[in-house]
């Protein structure tokens, strides 16, 4: 039982260097966050040793008394947090949660109607070489090229035309709230299930700063590691008792073997924290940070450089930057921000003239910096740094110094050693 630094110094160094990287950069990938130390503790615990196929009280292994308590807590807290009648907390990730949802409510060959990947959807919503695109017949809706918004009349038209078994509402890169009631109306009109994948905005929902899809959807799935800031994993919610049974069967034995009990315990802790006033306040800062960033990137100096913000702003935790008319492309912008120690990801914009490895867009999110403690003052500073970095002839050393001042003022995981 020698420590990691002795057993495997190479991996120990990866952990140490990664902690340094996280401390020294401003993390603005919209799907990332920092888990609290309490969550790190559960994930690095002896619960990883335990097999627990089945569900609490109905396991296929002995010795599950303690992990049953953890899973019950995670289930009850997830239900309370999102106001649902049922929760399955076993999915290993968002993608496996989504695979289980489809396994529960559709059969191979059925038609799914979801947001196209290149318009802001997710791989699991029907991308050609993902399981979803291979197993199901995919019809995709997009966003209006002028407004960058989902056109609900177009969704209805496609739904009436294609009679899908499932309509998918949810996104990985979309800066506005969805009209869940209208999605449900359309689903009811054509006899489809409405599945909402709230992976990105679940933390906003939990914090009460974004409408909840739970009263509208037949099924809701989410990751736990994005805006919620919990362990990397997924969950599935529903208010329908029949669907609940199908979802449980779809997850186990349909899709997974032993659940990751250390991660499920960490989910329970993350959900407990998500019910606190501090969590709500953090989600409010997350939203304000994104809107401060969008406002800065809509100013004249940026517009003069051919750079714009898709949909003209944001209602959520991210901003989509459109570089189609700018000299700089998505990859150059991502690299440039990396040079000044801000991490973002490049993203295709609808009708992107540049190839997917280059792109003409950036997706910039505020959840991780809000967790780090940033408020309006710091987000105003970050927004200005990003704006100046994207303009021609940026003064890189000056911007690096401004980022370094922010990272120093908000230490990440103080006292933690890896
Ligand atoms: N659903 C949406 C909307 C996502 O954005 C993502 C992740 O990016 C996922 C599902 C998949 O989550 P994971 O990466 O945990 O498989």
UniProtKB/TrEMBL annotation:
| InterPro entries named among the record's database cross-references | PyrdxlP-dep_Trfase, PyrdxlP-dep_Trfase_major, PyrdxlP-dep_Trfase_small, Ser_HO-MeTrfase, Ser_HO-MeTrfase-like, Ser_HO-MeTrfase_PLP_BS, SHMT-like_dom
One GO term describing the cellular component: cytosol
* Names of required cofactors: pyridoxal 5'-phosphate
Reaction(s) this enzyme catalyzes, per UniProt: (6R)-5,10-methylene-5,6,7,8-tetrahydrofolate + glycine + H2O = (6S)-5,6,7,8-tetrahydrofolate + L-serine
Query: Top-level EC class, please?
Result: transferase
Which ranges carry the Serine hydroxymethyltransferase-like domain?
A: 4-386
- Keyword set includes Amino-acid biosynthesis: yes
Give the EC number(s) listed in the UniProt record: 2.1.2.1
Question: What main location does UniProt list?
Answer: cytoplasm
Keywords on this record?
Answer: Amino-acid biosynthesis, Cytoplasm, Methyltransferase, One-carbon metabolism, Pyridoxal phosphate, Transferase
| Binding residue positions for (6S)-5,6,7,8-tetrahydrofolate | 117, 121-123
Which terms in the Gene Ontology molecular function aspect does this entry carry?
Answer: glycine hydroxymethyltransferase activity; methyltransferase activity; protein homodimerization activity; pyridoxal phosphate binding
User: What function does this protein fulfil?
Assistant: Catalyzes the reversible interconversion of serine and glycine with tetrahydrofolate (THF) serving as the one-carbon carrier. This reaction serves as the major source of one-carbon groups required for the biosynthesis of purines, thymidylate, methionine, and other important biomolecules. Also exhibits THF-independent aldolase activity toward beta-hydroxyamino acids, producing glycine and aldehydes, via a retro-aldol mechanism. Thus, is able to catalyze the cleavage of L-allo-threonine.
Q: Report the sequence similarity comment from the record.
A: Belongs to the SHMT family.
UniProt name for this protein: Serine hydroxymethyltransferase
Which source organism does the UniProt entry give?
Answer: Microbacterium endophyticum
The organism's lineage is: Bacteria, Bacillati, Actinomycetota, Actinomycetes, Micrococcales
């Amino acid at each position: 039982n020698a420590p990691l630094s002795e057993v495997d110094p190479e991996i120990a160094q990866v952990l140490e260097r990664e902690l340094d990287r996280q401390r020294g950069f401003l993390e603005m990938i919209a799907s990332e966050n920092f888990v609290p130390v309490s969550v790190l503790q559960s994930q690095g615990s002896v619960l990883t040793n335990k097999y627990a196929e089945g569900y609490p009280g109905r396991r296929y292994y002995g010795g599950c008394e303690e992990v049953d308590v953890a899973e019950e807590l995670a289930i009850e807290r997830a239900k309370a947090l999102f106001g649902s009648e049922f929760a399955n907390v076993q999915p290993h990730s968002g993608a496996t949660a989504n695979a289980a949802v489809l396994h529960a409510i559709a059969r191979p060959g059925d038609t799914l109607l979801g947001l196209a990947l290149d318009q802001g959807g997710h791989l699991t919503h029907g991308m050609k070489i993902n399981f979803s695109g291979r197993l199901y017949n995919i019809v995709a809706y997009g966003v209006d090229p002028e407004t960058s918004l989902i056109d609900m009349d177009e969704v209805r038209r496609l739904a009436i035309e294609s009679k899908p078994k499932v309509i998918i509402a949810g996104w990985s890169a979309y800066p506005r709230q969805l009209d869940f009631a209208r999605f449900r109306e359309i689903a009811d009109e054509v006899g489809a299930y409405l599945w909402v994948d709230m992976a990105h905005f679940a933390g906003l929902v939990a914090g009460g700063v974004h409408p909840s899809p739970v009263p509208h959807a037949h099924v809701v799935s989410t990751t736990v590691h994005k805006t919620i800031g919990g362990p990397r994993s997924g969950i599935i919610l529903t208010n329908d008792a029949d669907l609940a049974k199908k979802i449980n069967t779809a997850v186990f034995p349909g899709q997974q073997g032993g659940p990751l009990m250390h991660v499920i315990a960490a989910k329970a802790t993350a959900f407990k924290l998500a019910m606190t006033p501090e969590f709500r306040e953090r989600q409010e800062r997350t939203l304000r940070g994104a809107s401060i960033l969008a406002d800065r990137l809509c100013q004249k100096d940026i517009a003069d450089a051919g750079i714009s913000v898709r949909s003209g702003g944001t209602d959520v935790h991210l901003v989509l930057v459109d570089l189609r008319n700018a000299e700089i492309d998505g990859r150059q912008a991502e690299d440039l921000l990396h040079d000044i120690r801000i991490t973002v990801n490049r993203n295709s914009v609808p009708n992107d003239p540049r190839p997917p490895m280059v792109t003409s867009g950036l997706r910039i999110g505020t959840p991780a910096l809000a967790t780090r403690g940033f408020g309006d003052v710091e987000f105003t500073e970050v927004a200005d740094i990003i704006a100046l970095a994207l303009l021609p002839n940026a003064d890189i050393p000056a911007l690096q110094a401004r980022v370094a001042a922010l990272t120093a003022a908000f230490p990440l995981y103080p006292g933690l050693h890896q």
